[in-house]
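Data availability (excerpt). The following record was deposited with the supplementary files.
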Amino acid sequence: MDANRNEQHAEGDGGRRRAGLLRVLPAKPLLSGFSVAVGVLLAIALAATIAGISTVLISIFLGMFLALGLDPAVRAFERRGMSRAAGVTIVAIIFLGVVALILLVLVPATVRQIAAAVEAAPETIAAIQQSGWYRDLESALGVDLSAVVAESIRSLTSLSSFLAISGGVLKAGFGVVGAISSFVLVVVLTLYFVSSLQSIKGALTNLLPRYRRARFAGVLDEITQSVGGVVAGGVTLSAINASVVLVIQLIVGSSIPAVMAIVAFFVTLVPMIGSLVFLVIGGIATLLVSPTAALVFVVAYLVYIQVEAYVVTPRIMGKAAAVPGVLVIIGAMIGATLLGLLGALVAIPLTASILIVIRQVWIPRQNRQTEPPDDEMLTP
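Predicted structure:
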C-alpha cells in the first residue's frame, strides 16, 4: 500500500509539473514570439516618439506646473467674494505684467551687465594678478598662473577655436529661437490651464465610476492645493532670496548684481540645497571683486540662510508641503538626474502628491484589512 501511495504521489507530482510546463510554454510559439517582437518594436517606437516631442511635453508640464502655482492666488480672490472668472482674469493680468517686466527690464539690464563685465575682463584679470593674495597663491602652488591664463586666452582666440565657437554660436542662435518659442508656448499654456483647471479636474473625475468620483475628486483637490501651495511658496522664497542677493551684491560693489540675482532665483528654486549651492557660486563670483567682498557676501548670505530657514520659510510655506527633509533631498537628486533643473523643481510637489495618495488611499485600505486573506489562512 505504501508503494502504491508513493507511485500515486509521484504520478501526481509529474502531472503538476507537466501542467506547469504547459502553462509556461505558449500553445503557439511562433505566433507568441512574433507578438512579443511586435510589442518590443512598438515600445521602441513609442519611446522614440516621446523623445522627439520631449520639448513639447516639458512645455506642457511646465505650463501645468505654473498654473498650479497660480491657482492659490485665484482661490484667494474667490475667498474674498469674487467669481473664479474674475480671479482668473486678475491673476492672468498680473502674470502677464510680470512676464513683461522680465522681458523689458530685467533682460536688457542683464545683457548690459554681462557686456560690461566682458569689456572689463582684461582690467579685472590684470588687477587680480597684481593683488597680494594672487601672488601668494602663485608662490604656494609654484606655478606661473599668469602664463597659464595668457596661454588659455591665446588658445581661445586661435583660428580653430574661432571656427568651433562660430559653429557653437550658430547652434546657440537656433537654441535661442527655440527657447523663445518654448517660452511663448509655456506662457499661453499657463494661462489656459489656469482658466480651465476646474474643468480639467472635472473631466478626469468623470472618467471613473460614479461611486469612486467623490473620493477621487477630494484627493485630486487636495493634491492640486498642496502642489499649488508648494509652487507658489517656492517662487516667493526664491524671489526674496534673489532680492537679498541683489542688495548684498550692490553693497560689495559687484559689476553684475542683476545677473547674480537672476542666478540666485533659479538656483534657489531647488529646495533646501539650492541656497547652499548658490553660496558657493556667489562666493566664487564675488571673489573677482576682492577677497574682502567675497567674505562679506558669504557671511551676510549665511546669516540670511539661517533667517530663511527658521523665520521666512515657516511663515510662507506653512503646511503646504509636509514632506520629510530626507525625502526632499532624495527627490531633488533624482529629479535633477532625470530632468535637470526642472526635475529638481517638481520633485517636492510630486513627492507631496505621492504622500497624499499614500495617506488618503493606501493606508486606509490597509487599515480596513483586519483579517488575513483566505490563501494566507490556509498556508501552514
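Summary of structural features: The chain has two domains: 53-146+175-195, 212-365.
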